[in-house]
Amino acid sequence: MGWLDRLLGRRRPRPIPPPLWQQTVARLPFLQWLPAADLARLQSLSEAFLAAKQFSGAAGLEVDDAMGVHIAAQGCLPILNLGLEWYDDWVEIIVYPDEFVVPRQEMDPDGVVHEYDEVAAGQAWDGGPLILSWQDSQMAGDGYNVVIHEFAHKLDMINGAPDGLPPLHPGMDREAWVAALDGAYDDFLARVERAEARGEEALEQLPIDPYGAEHPGEFFAVVSESFFEQPQVVAAEYPALYAQLALFYRQDPLARAQAAGSSRSR
């Protein structure tokens, strides 16, 4: 049995081998901004996550140790200062080699139901599994992060359908959250519509993935990707929303990125 297999067979966490953890951090530049103490806490949280969750490969994929740790480290970053209990209501992670097909149903204004297949890189089921494309999971680091995206959906689902309003902490102002999210979403939707009118190149130049224009819930997940990977973009484009995300996640990725950059420059 491999290390991950042995680990998943027990509820008590087992240490991630240091070379594997170092390799994982080296592949994810936004983790390198974390101070040493926070990085150690992320490792411990990832170990507890691996002990609590079940990984399944799909379409012939075998999930090995490196894959499991790679996903766990990214998925646990949003809850670094929240706790593993935020992921308590689900267990399984299904990993496909690449994008996969999801059957969809949609009702048009006349009440006719249309069935179609949609190609997806990730999917989160309310109370059920989280599904990822391994190929896309490796694309992290440039503002696109399917792992953080789907884990953000899981947080959003704790209090109902994913609508961009996860359960806020005591002391957070719901009206301030809604105003920041809705204001940013409306502005982003208008920007995407203008870019679509100009063509594909204009869409690619947007600072945030245009998929966020699909729905406020998708916008929250997409902005969460950028918040952790390219915090300077969110802080510059939507400072009020950045402030709310920092309160919710109890993290300030921009400050730690700047601190890490300053440390390296000395």
Automatic annotation (TrEMBL):
Any Pfam family from its record, for instance, is Peptidase_M90
Q: Which InterPro entries match?
A: MetalloPept_cat_dom_sf (IPR024079), MtfA_fam (IPR010384), MtfA_N (IPR042252)
Name listed for the protein in its UniProt record: Mlc titration factor A
Source species of the chain: Azospira oryzae
Starting at the broadest rank, the lineage of the source organism is: Bacteria, Pseudomonadati, Pseudomonadota, Betaproteobacteria, Rhodocyclales
